[in-house]
Amino acid sequence: MTKIVPFFDLGQAIRPEREALHLALDEVIDSGYFIGGALTGRFETEFAKFVGAEHCVGTGNGLDAIRLILEAYDIGDGDEVIVPAFTFYATWLGVTQTGATPVPVEVCGSSANIDASDIERAITPRTKAIIAVHLYGQAADLRAVRAVADAHGLVVVEDAAQSHGAMSTAGMTGSAGHAAAFSFYPTKNLGALGDAGAVTTSDPEIARRVSSRRSYGQGASKYDHVDTGWNSRLDPLQAAFLSQHLVKLDGWTERRRSIASSYLAALGPDRAAGVVGPADVAASVWHHFVLRAEVRPELQAFLSDHGVTTDVHYPYSVHELAPMRTLMSEDSLSRSFPVAEALSRQVTSLPMGPWMTDAQVAQVAAALHEVPASLLAH
Which residues neighbour 181 within 8 Å (Cβ) at sequence distance 6 or greater? Predict the structure, then answer.
């Protein structure tokens, strides 16, 4: 019987960390602080240093981080925010939660990241920000995005939920834009053991506003409410877990790159053209390893027959989803985004992560070696 390689095995990923995580739990219990406190502050300092930003503000999750950034820049009703047409739903949802309107632009087929050359035509007098998503672990071209933004006085927000430790053309993700939103969902490259997120920025005023708004608009003291806000705080238990994981992240990234190298070698140069990602494995942190399928169910069936479980990130281009179409402008509704739409029909994600055994990696690579070129889009 063919062994099955799961798409992701969270238990297999976490069990080797059991002893360190129990120590982190003890540290939280001994501290006596279960909301806020020194352990949350410690991780915020560590993560800011890691990405090269002046400030890190922990949040409840990555979606809240997006919304809090936009609110900190006073973006809301009547404003427009440029977003990639192809991304996870939360990128757009963070915009709509402020009352602003998401304006889609095209993405690049080779990376699935925002196409900087399509941004200019989407800018109107109401445009306030551009959200650049670093999808699948490969950073968007932040130098090109910032050049457009700087010419029009726009804020660049990074959706860095899938790019912990990735380098962009303007620096490490998390420090290359004006502010960045991170998710530490358990399956991320840097994952907690529950929901968690953060905002990084080098602007002290934005850090102050995000810090206030994540906790009821709090000012200098508990009952000093200086703003409206939310309850979206990174709790010290997740912060302690994240501190344990952060010191291992570089090693985990190298393991991901090693796996990507094995997969690319198995595909060979011709079929590797079907990969959504760079040919140079060092140019991504490989949150996902993604193929473009000519007919996705056929590719998934072939891989399943070889014991390889797959997933899809994502089976939609966000501008096609009914809840968002009711919020988009007439101009956006009139446009098509053929690259984004093609990706939504083609992308197929393979098992990827430091939790994988050598045998599992070899099994996926062997399946890729046998994949007919006719199943892959180019």
Answer: 62, 65, 66, 69, 94, 157, 158, 159, 160, 161, 197, 198, 199
One domain for residues 74 and 125 = yes
Please check whether residues 369 and 264 belong to one and the same domain. yes
Buried b (16+ CB within 10 A) or exposed e, 52-71: ebebbbbbbbbbbbbbbbbb
Is residue 92 within a helix (H) or strand (E), and if so which, with residue range? helix 89-96
- 38 shares its domain with 97: yes
In this structure, the answer to whether residues 47 and 185 fall within a common structural domain is yes
Exposed / middle / buried, residue 364 (Cβ in 10 Å: 0-12, 13-18, 19+): buried
Each residue's pLDDT tens digit, 347-364 = 999 999 999 999 999 999
Count of C-beta atoms within a 10 Å radius of residue 20: 16
Question: Does a structural domain hold residue 59?
Answer: yes
Residue appearing with tokens 């090269």: 52
Q: Looking at residues 84-96, what average pLDDT do you find?
A: 98
281 Cβ contact partners less than 8 Å away, ≥ 6 residues apart: 257, 260, 261, 264
pLDDT in tens, 110-137: 999 999 999 999 999 999 999 999 999 9
CB 296 within 8 A of CB 312: yes
SS (H, E, C) 39-53: HHHHHHHHHHHHHCC
First to last CA, the chain: 33
How many whole angstroms separate alpha carbon 64 and alpha carbon 135? 18
- Using alpha carbons only, what angle is made at residue 333 by residues 180 and 82, rounded to the nearest 5 degrees? 20
- Residue 33's pLDDT is what? 96
Same domain, 253 and 295: yes
Element (H, E) at 196: none
Residue 58's closest CA among 214, 227, 231?
214
Distance CA 27, CA 117 (A): 49
Residue numbers of the domain that contains 315: 249-375
The tokens 């501008």 sit on which residue? 319
Q: Give the Cα separation of 278 and 123 in Å (integer).
A: 29
Q: Are residues 49 and 154 in the same domain?
A: yes
Phi and psi torsions of 89, nearest 5°: -50, -35
Cα–Cα distance for residue pair 20/41, rounded to 1 Å: 19
- The CA-atom distances, in angstroms, between 27 and each of 32, 37, 45, 191 are 9, 12, 18, 19
Together in a domain, 259 and 231: no
